[in-house]
Amino acid sequence: MLANSGPISHHLLPMNAVVEEDGMLSVGGVRLDYLAHTFGTPLFVYDEGHLRNRCREALSAWGTGVAYASKAFMCKAMARLAYDEGMRIDVASGGEMHVAVSAGVPPSRLIFHGNNKSEQELLRAFEYGVGSIVVDSFDELRRIAKIAPQFIDRRASGQALMLRINPGIEAHTHEFVKTGQVDSKFGLSISSIMEAVRAINGMEGVFLSGMHSHIGSQIFNVHHFEEEIRMLVDLADDIMAIPKEGGYDEFELCVGGGLGVAYLSDERAPSITEWAETVKAVITPSRLHITAEPGRAIVATAGMTIYSVGTVKDIPGVRTYLSVDGGMSDNPRPVLYGSGYEAFIAREVNAERSRPVRVVGKHCESGDILIADARLPEDVSVDDLLVVPVTGAYGYSMASNYNKVPRPPVVFVSSGDARLVIRGESLDDMCRLDVL
Ligand SMILES: Cc1ncc(COP(=O)(O)O)c(C=O)c1O
Fold first, then answer.
1. In this predicted model, what pLDDT tens digit does every residue of 317-354 receive, in sequence order?
2. In this structure, which residue's CA is closest to atom 12 in ligand 1?
3. Is residue 55 among the annotated active site residues?
4. Where are the domains of the chain?
5. Distance 382 CA to ligand 1 centre (A)
6. Is any ligand 1 atom within 6 A of the Cβ of residue 294?
7. Which of 13, 210, 277, 424 sits in a 20 to 30 Å window from 64, CA-based?
8. What is the CATH number of domain 10-47+301-431?
9. Residue 217: CB within 6 Å of ligand 1?
10. pLDDT tens digits for range 173-192
11. Nearest to residue 322, comparing CAs of 395, 389, 382?
């Protein structure tokens, strides 16, 4: 699909983006040409005010307990920012857990996910005393049963566990599928939940604090979450009917993440507030504590990538290839999922984009395509700064060193300041793990 030929739509830009008098974009009070000159390209730029605004919206919409899904973009500065803004942090590996703790996030604010947590990772989670471990399988429960007794003296209440339910519902941008038979590596099937609950109730040193499920990503229709929350509430009723010593003070039901964001001019996404209101409208207030863990909706639009144009190759009658100095190594989403993006030129944000081009990266791969059918201004040329907006989620976090291309630096911009939060890799970094 060919992108819109008008200027880039401003709803794809971070909230503190401003077009300067000379046409150059600035974000958080810092011009993009200054950022490119100071930090080089490619460069990930995040509007810190936008990140904080999204965290605050999530907190006010969902209430305490809402978590930031750190897989979307994780580094110490991001973990710290989300924690400072009052969010818990969803970590899905020992690595993400390590980054959060290294950033000074109290382990009690972490929710530990993953479909194949190792014994080592679980042991670490118990040692830290993470807020909750979201149990994904019976094998994991067996590992937990081995570990938990060692920690009984440390925590009077025991380690909180949640159960990840595979709801048999899958929703993506435009479809909503209810699968009779459940085909996913994640979570416990609905029919096995009571067995898992009884197993936890019979274990020492742990207690069941809630349930979790996640129905997909890039969901634009928030009504898709209604069926999920109904399913969780029904299960919670069944669980609470099982006699248990001490009963349940409060029981958490987490609907996961998945709220969509607009990547293209003609896309409009619901707000975090609309999402929360829709889900909460389904249930009557009770002991149930409804939470969520958005990732993309917190960070995607806050971030953008600045590249330099290196070559413009015109093949008459075929197409124009425009190569930039990054590609599938800093943004694998187009290659992995066929995800769509738009681009614009930093010095002329409001220019018409009538020239069809294919924006490609510098990797030895014909499939290294960032934007298959982009539109850019007619005068785009070598050395221009090309900006791809909405790259804040699953760009840096999925980046690789393919072709030994160093990963770019990441800066947070705010109130006229640019703060380096991840340094760019050097050529020496390309062999730092080598043993020769
Ligand atoms: C369990 C879980 N929670 C939260 C998320 C975050 O999803 P999103 O970034 O789409 O909000 C994911 C994404 O894969 C997930 O698997």
1. 999 999 999 999 999 999 999 999 999 999 999 999 99
2. 257
3. no
4. 10-47+301-431, 113-293
5. 38
6. yes
7. 13
8. 2.40.37.10
9. yes
10. 666 665 545 788 899 999 99
11. 382
